[in-house]
Amino acid sequence: MRWFILILMFFGAMISFADKSIVGLAAVPIMEEFNLSYVEWGLVGSCYYWLYPVTGPFGASWADRIGAKKILGFLMISWSILQFGVLAIAALPFLLLYRVLLGAFGGPYSPIAYSHLDKWFAKEKGLANSAIVGGGTIGAMVIAPVLVSLITIFGWKVAFASLGVASLIWFFLFQFFTKESPIAVYKKEEKKQIEKLEKFNLKEFVSLMIRPTPLFTVLAYASVYMLIIWFTIWCPIYLVEVVQLSAAQMGYSIATIGIASIVIYTGVSMISDYLFKKNQDWRISRIYVVTISMAIGALLLASIIIFPNPIWVVSALCLSKGLTYAILVIAPTIMINEKRESGGLMSSMLTSFGSLAGIVAPVLTGYIISLAAGDKIAGYNFSVLFMAALVLTFGILFGIFVKPALSRNKVAKKNISNEVDLVN
């Protein structure tokens, strides 16, 4: 059952990220159809995240209370309706409204999925989280050639609607073939968690979030989320306009970057899990692994400015994406461990603050490009350098300030032991 749930969470993340990223693959026909400027296109990319920070925590906390199945099912039905509704879009305001609503109903998915898998996987948390991030990567990049083909042959609206069909199929599989928790015994634990959630104290929660561990975990996550937006919204255009790839070459390059990055950050997460099982040390197994990965990934990203050869650009982007995305896999585990009875809410802090970055990133990138006074190559290079510096800075801060207490390690061991007993 848990492996089937893991597979569905993987495909759910794939649909979610395909929903949000397909607009980048359809950038050229959409911009031509609505006669959009770069700044207006940045607005289209940004508006997806306007309600994301609000609906993420709200939906995740409700899932903590009434169960993941109900909320995830509702989200999938909403995605399906919105994607079918694309067929009626005839002007920019309607496109913006569609993106805003899609982001609103997309916000809760990842935190709920992280928290839901945390119930089912006692020791392989890094691997389980990698499935969600991996699904997102495939949805955003790996299936790009398929989506580009659909856009080319049938038009961008039909391609969008096809994702609505995928959401509908996922809904029926998840609702009728999975369970809420590993075993009936877990219902007692859920009842205790609900009682604790009913006594939720906002002041206590804010006090928790400003501690160094959750604060700098969220900031490091948000910095990489800005890079996610760059990969989603601007990377396809960068490969075409700067690297001079054809549309087909761009699609296959995006897929290559996505596949390679999945292998890399899954490998990093497995190394982290292995080290944690071996020494139970959060600093070594989680923090240092992520910090080193983010630093190397940021430097590789910056290198494409110096070496603009297409082969090196695609290779560097493969490595950069895979290494920097390690924070996406490890951060939910760190946050959930801070307050386990509110796992969905804690992980939603990551996606919500990441979405704040998502609001700023597309517009900021468009503004940076426009500052180059007509020199698009210089503008894109400035944006790449900015993203690399951001990830490098917050990766180092993450390594310095995120220090889970030793006593918390003991609690983590006890939690793992209890979860193993429950799953067994």
UniProtKB/TrEMBL annotation:
PROSITE patterns membership: MFS
Keyword Hydrolase belongs to the record: no
Topology term for the membrane: Multi-pass membrane protein
Entry's localization field: Cell membrane
Transmembrane segments: 34-51, 71-90, 126-153, 159-178, 218-240, 252-275, 287-307, 313-336, 348-370, 382-402
Domain of life where this protein originates: Bacteria
Keywords: Membrane, Transmembrane, Transmembrane helix, Transport
Major facilitator superfamily (MFS) profile domain sequence ranges: 5-407
InterPro entries, sorted: MFS, MFS_dom, MFS_Na/Anion_cotransporter, MFS_trans_sf
Keyword Transmembrane: yes
Record-given protein name: MFS transporter
Organism in which the protein naturally occurs: Sporosarcina soli
